[in-house]
Design goal:
The complex is a heterodimer of chains A (118) and B (113). Chain A contains no helices and 11 strands. Chain A is mostly beta strands. The model of chain A has no long low-confidence stretch (mean pLDDT 91). Classes of the chains: A mainly beta (118), B mainly beta (113).
């Protein structure tokens, strides 16, 4: 397994356009996370999945953002009607959540998708 | 109070010195603690995880955890210029139905040759 992969690596779009990013997690991992990171800040939680179920979505996330993980494998993050403030690095991470609880999971990150909204 | 706090830095140390990075967290129920290293323009990579009070050593890196003080630190011995990066502290959250990890803002470390 080559780790977490994300596509595209870079995306430039015009304000108002929709964009979609894809994340392929490590194959045996059941949890998948999406984060947004801007310069000088730590990764900001957006949402996460356990298998195909979306367990939590940040209240900071507007309705323009949606994520799916239809078969519990890869995930997509869509941003509709992009705004300049959406420009950031979008990071995906995956982990294995042990059935006994989530206290010991370690997240492994993909290379990220850098979005620039003009 | 922010959930995970770190000094933003930059922290500058001479090559060969010990770099000390600190992190405090607000959730007393947290059980898992992680240190990630992030080079400029790259994604975070895991350095160490720690779950019990005390020290955990891995090569030049030592993580220290004190749950009573809600404090976790990372020591880097014999610092090298290649250690220059941003170090992110991450802590699991027990406040939601499902655990998730909260990241601090990161501390920028510069190792001067």
């Amino acid at each position: 397994d080559t780790g977490v992969s994300q596509n595209p690596r870079h995306k430039i779009t015009k304000r108002g356009q929709n964009v979609t990013f894809r994340c392929d997690p490590i194959s045996e991992h059941n949890r998948l996370y999406w984060y947004r990171q801007t310069l000088g800040q730590g990764p900001e939680f957006l949402t996460y999945f356990q298998n195909e179920a979306q367990l939590e979505k940040s209240r900071l996330l507007s309705d323009r953002f949606s994520a799916e993980r239809p078969k519990g494998s890869f995930s997509t993050l869509e941003i509709q009607r992009t705004e300049q403030g959406d420009s950031a690095m979008y990071l995906c991470a995956s982990s294995f959540n042990h059935p006994s609880g989530g206290a010991y999971e370690t997240q492994y990150f993909g290379p990220g998708t850098r979005l620039l909204v003009l | 109070q922010k959930e995970v706090e770190q000094n933003s830095g930059p922290l500058s140390v001479p090559e060969g010195a010990i770099a000390s990075l600190n992190c405090t967290y607000s959730d007393r129920g947290s059980q898992s603690f992680f240190w990630y290293r992030q080079y400029s323009g790259k994604s975070p990579e895991l350095i160490m995880s720690i779950y019990s009070n005390g020290d955990k050593e891995d090569g030049r890196f030592t993580a220290q955890l004190n749950k009573a003080s809600q404090y976790v630190s990372l020591l880097i011995r014999d610092s090298q210029p290649s250690d220059s990066a941003t170090y992110l502290c991450a802590v699991n959250s027990s406040k939601t139905s499902y655990d998730k990890v909260i990241f601090g803002p990161g501390t920028s470390l510069s190792v001067i040759p």
